[in-house]
Design a protein that fits this description.
- The structure holds two protein chains of two kinds.
- By secondary structure, chain A is of the alpha/beta class.
- In chain A, 41% of the residues lie in helices and 13% in strands.
- In chain B, helix 2 packs antiparallel against helix 3 (55-77) and helix 6 packs parallel to helix 8.
- Chains A and B meet through loops of A and helix 1 of B.
Chain lengths: 306, 229
């Protein structure tokens, strides 16, 4: 156990004493999750992170804030690092800040945020506010959300990175929007990360974006791996394949996550959840074996015929 | 917004149904027993809204305007804004509606408007009754706790539907102007609830449709004839 993971567990222990974190999530995972390197630096990132779209937008409801804190505690206890949010996600940023403070600001945190404002001159103010919500001195990654006013925001982010005010910069899109512009930015600007939607039934990014990311040395974050839960609902009543063990998965969500993170261009998938059991299940998908290309084709074919 | 046609309503839903209904529960918990005063206001409106030019009616209408102002601040600005960044943009619209109703109440006290047509009075009465008595029953009827019941003059949807009832059954000055914000809100809340998969998503839009149809098809009703000298 590393010192930083020990610090997380100590924070969780304090929360458990206050009744906010159940004892069972204090047990650190038996083995650390599989990681993949950020191409530009070689820094290792666990294959599964934590999104916050919808799930962490709980306002100032103390009971739900504590519930989210338990999710974050379980995430770190399982060896997680990357948490992703956006000013667009309602109160998700203050919720993350609440959890991080309660957990004693876990050192493994890899903070991924976004700037999302049409008037780019107000971008720095928005990023400062986001930083205050999280309670972090700087973000590890700042992304331009959905390419909104991306030219001017990227100029700001490039300057921030040069000054050391952010470690990595990137752009995001979701649900396949603006891929033509997205590819253009990837091909012409010095990006560290891109964030796209990708899952076993929506594989459009495999054609251009993922190969371009590998070619340009850009890390890839995958959002909406379960299509906001719709994909899990669509398959959960169907039988898992008899060769499930070959994939390393035990459940449908793990099967779907394994498919995503086994793509060699993908750095990290960020499923969002408000339940401890789900975050543990998701993090377990970053352990054990990963499907090879032949098995990935088999997995996609199996889901396709359901 | 680029490629706006690629967005669906679910892309704009920022919260889960569970969080939304807990928000309502917390709002009810924090403002209890204001609900009792709100119920008295609703009762007063139901009793007096058919009266012709009564001062009490005008005062109650002004209080209805006050309820809109209250909801603009207490619900949209202070509460809903914590989970929906669009709520602070709705608050001014509710405040404006409150002011319109107060001005309409003042004008009504002086103008002695004539009664509406029987059809409008029937539709308006039903809407008012639904806003006052029907809406609080929706939560338990749909499996949500009583604590999440939505009541008139405390939460927006029943207040809007009751207001549509008042505007339909009384010939208030500024009546058509006063319909704009309630009808728009019915569309917004209907879309939100529909995206959340709520069974009562059609309640508010149906109320708005009924109010519009009754208002535009039944005319102003009997004209008021000043007494001969």
């Amino acid at each position: 156990m590393t010192t930083s993971r020990r610090a997380v567990l100590q924070g969780a222990l304090a929360l458990a004493a206050a009744g906010a974190v159940p004892g069972r999530i204090l047990h650190a995972a038996a083995s650390p999750p599989l990681t993949r390197a950020i191409p530009k630096t070689g820094e290792q990132i666990p294959l599964v992170g934590l999104g916050s779209w919808i799930t962490f937008n709980v306002g100032n409801d103390r009971a739900l804030l504590d519930e989210c804190t338990r999710v974050v505690a379980a995430f770190f206890a399982a060896g997680g690092r990357m948490i992703d949010s956006s000013p667009m996600y309602g109160s998700s940023q203050p919720t993350i800040g609440y959890a991080l403070k309660k957990l004693g600001h876990p050192k493994p945190l890899f903070s991924a945020e976004k700037v999302w404002i049409s008037n780019a001159s107000r971008g720095p103010t928005q990023m400062d506010r986001s930083r205050a919500y999280w309670g972090v001195p700087r973000f590890d990654l700042m992304q331009v959300h959905n390419l909104l006013s991306w030219e001017r925001h990227l100029e700001t982010l490039e300057a921030m990175k040069a000054d050391g005010r952010v470690r990595y910069i990137g752009i995001t899109t979701s649900e396949g929007r603006r891929h033509r512009d997205f590819i253009k930015v990837m091909a012409t600007r010095p990006l560290d990360f891109v964030q796209v939607s990708y899952n076993i039934v929506d594989r459009e990014v495999e054609r251009r974006i993922l190969p371009l990311a590998r070619e340009r040395g850009i890390a890839v974050i995958v959002n909406r791996p379960f299509q906001q839960g719709d994909l899990v609902k669509a398959v959960e009543k169907k039988p898992l394949p008899p060769w499930l063990a070959e994939t390393g998965a035990r459940t449908w969500p793990q099967f779907l996550l394994k498919f995503i993170v086994s793509h060699p261009a993908v750095t990290c998938a960020i499923p969002a959840t408000s339940r401890v059991a789900h975050v543990e299940e998701n993090m377990a998908a970053a352990r054990g074996v990963l499907p090879d290309e032949a098995l990935r084709r088999r997995m996609a074919a199996y889901v396709g015929q359901l | 917004m680029a490629e706006w046609w690629t967005y669906s309503l679910s892309d704009f839903l920022l919260f889960s149904p569970r969080v939304y209904y807990r928000l309502i529960e917390l709002h009810n918990r924090d403002w209890w027993p204001a609900h009792l005063a709100a119920a008295l206001l609703g009762l007063g409106l139901a009793v007096t809204v058919r009266a012709e030019g009564a001062r009490l009616q005008a005062r109650l209408l002004a209080l209805l305007g006050g309820a809109w102002l209250w909801i603009a601040w207490a619900f949209f600005w202070e509460r809903y804004a914590t989970i929906n960044w669009a709520a602070p943009y709705v608050a001014p619209a509710f405040a404006l509606q409150g002011l319109i109703l107060i001005v309409a109440a003042l004008l009504a006290a002086r103008a002695k408007p004539p009664p509406a047509t029987p059809a409008r009075r029937t539709v308006g009465g039903l809407l008012l009754a639904f806003g006052l008595a029907g809406y609080p029953l929706l939560a338990p009827a749909l499996g949500r706790p009583w604590r999440a019941a939505e009541t008139f003059a405390v939460l927006p949807d029943p207040t809007v539907v009751a207001t549509l009832g008042v505007l339909t059954l009384a010939n208030l000055p500024l009546r058509r102007l006063a319909l704009v914000v309630p009808v728009l809100w019915c569309l917004v809340t209907g879309a939100t609830l529909w995206t959340m998969g709520a069974a009562d998503a059609f309640a508010a839009p149906a109320a708005a449709l009924a109010a519009l149809v009754a208002t535009w098809t039944s005319g102003r009703g009997r004209r008021h004839t000043p007494p001969r000298p």
